[in-house]
Write a structure and sequence with these properties.
By secondary structure, the protein is of the alpha/beta class. The protein has 22 helices and 15 strands. The strands form 3 sheets. The protein has an 8-stranded parallel beta barrel with strand order 6-7-8-9-10-11-12-13. A 5-stranded mixed sheet has the order 1-2-4-3-5. α3 packs parallel to α5, α9 packs across α10 and α20 runs antiparallel to α21. The structure holds 4-O-methyl-beta-D-glucopyranuronic acid. The site of 4-O-methyl-beta-D-glucopyranuronic acid has 13 residues, from loops.
Length: about 725
Amino acid sequence: MFRFLAAALLVLLTVPARAEDGYDLWLRYRPMEAAVLAQYRPLATAIVSQGASPSLDAAKSELTRGLSGLLDRPVGAGTVADGAVVIGTPGSSPLIAGLKLPLTNLGKEGYLIRSSSVGGHAVTVIAANSDIGVLYGSFAFLRLIQTRQPVARLDIASAPRLKLRLLNHWDNLDGTIERGYAGRSIFDWNKMPDYMGPRYTVMARANASVGINGISVNNVSADVWMLSSMYIGKLAALADVLRPYGIRVYVAAKFSAPVELGRLKTADPADPQVQAWWKKEVDSIYRRIPDFGGFVVKANSEGQPGPRDYNRTQAEGANVIADALAPHGGIVFWRAFVYSEKDPTDRAKQAYNEFKPLDGKFRDNVFVQTKNGAIDFQPREPAHPMFGAMPKTNLALEVQITKEYLGQTTHLVYLPVLFKEILDWDTFAKGQGSTVAKVIDGSLEGHDQSAMVGVSNIGDDRNWTGAQFSQADWYGFGRLAWEPSLSAEQIAREWLGMTFTNDPAFANAVIPMMIKSREAVVDYMTPLGLHHQFATGHHYGPGPWVSDLARPEWNPVYYNHADAQGLGFDRTPSGSDATSQYAPPLARLFSGPDIPERDLLWFQRVAWDHRMKSGRTLWDELVVHYDTGIATVAEMEKTWAAMKPHVDEERWSQTATFLAIQKKEAQWWRDACIAYFESFSRMPMPAGHAPPPHDLAYYKAITFPYAPGRPDYTSAPFHNRPNDPME
Ligand code: GCW
């Protein structure tokens, strides 16, 4: 009986305390396989740290949590002995100082991890110039163990290639999220500053583990309340929670704040009262948040106010805010996502036309924050022509981690492949090799500042991102912002190992599945350079026929130009001439016959019977791509089905079900688009490819009145607040 009870107890103790549901992200720290435990245990026996600070404490507690979990026995604070992990900076730790480590090139945030000897004991040293560097190094050390890398003879030095690595949350103050597909906002402003729930800290740990060092907390289509004294007070409490993890807070600022909040008659940046207002507002924020990061501003875009309302340039608008921030070291991220309903120019050209002449006119503490492509986070876009064309301006790359145009919650599309496509894109700005990565890391034009921004996919869903695999996009964004040269495969391997299992059979099957998911979505939604074929408002599902929206450039027909002759947007010199915004070698390529077919319909208008490289007509090729997309998703589904033995029930079955939804919706995309395009091409389906099962009217009639993430949030009027005394 006793033996039975003991055995039962043992079983209970070894079963994880809670089922896997994704809440722990890639920081699960589950016990390693028995076979390797014996190798690792002697290499991490205790944590030795001298000095104390909130960031060092965070590093210590992460190591304690991580090592104790992974090694399946308590690993706590100790003294130097064989296997100790010695952490710190030369400034606060005499032990580290005594080692005379080469830390100078690591900057403020870099770290060094080295197997070393202290007092005759074999130890691992995690050292940096700052406590936050120590925290980053601790996460990196844990990652090595989490991914079963050898840790006995380490000599690793790492420093971020980009200085600012930011998430932009598009969260509204009422808890909804524009383009959010993972529940409601994690920011519970109503209970702040008194109640600061545990998820802020978990989010901070996750961000720090991949090096994200700033977040802007509210929608860029901004609510002026965010700048009110009341909300800055709440933000200060959030900043206190995030600070130990090296994360600064930023705010999306509404350009009309001097009028709405400050009750001035104008927000004209040339007006001295407006300048004084921004200064007073900013000074007041810094009194409460001394390390406040700065502002993100969406101006004169999609109805947002901006300097153009006063006949001022984007630079004049950015600079008035930058001048207020400069004495405090704050930054303005001024978004380049502008297009105007009054401008008939090809939308793809408008941002470049507006910003290029302003190169050199922005203050040093301004970034022009530019989306990866010139339209809007499409499944595939050529890189934005502004990269490489603004040598005297700090350019930040903005990518979307939330999947507005990539199937939203349920489509598995591994975004680091897309991010890499852009980072590795050659702008030819200074000859071959002038990649976007070199533009944004400052090296191409010799800028000190550098930044990459991701539109967050985090919500209050239990698993944070709505789908298990969307966590990889958050993870991968951070890893690439730290080191853009990492490969999408390596990032997938790390993330899978930390999130699921390091079993090679699993990685060998799932990495290729993740990598090809990126092309799959392009194939079944917008192959061969098609873009913006999405249903109205929520962008969920296909709507290539939509032509009734107020502004031409909101309509999918504006982008596909389908008619009886052919398909595609002529952006060559005989059309909108957007190709001329690229460096000459690219301009020639994109307007000529050798254009890569993946970008064909983005830049050129092509007859339905045009011969493609495959020998097929455009029409046949289009159909083949749609069907290839579906076939790839079917393969992904099969791969995942075979992974059942490797994955816990909840995460496996959610992913399996989502893949089934993805397959169904890929088919829907294909059928709806083919039904529409066929009404122009009038060509037969190529042999072996079935026609859509329904007529076009059927697909047009499908509606989703309550699809999530729509941008129709309206902020509460500010005028019912009598006074907003700034501190
Ligand atoms: O991608 C588009 C979205 C809008 C968004 C806008 C932007 C916040 O459809 O919802 O608004 O871009 O980036 O400003």
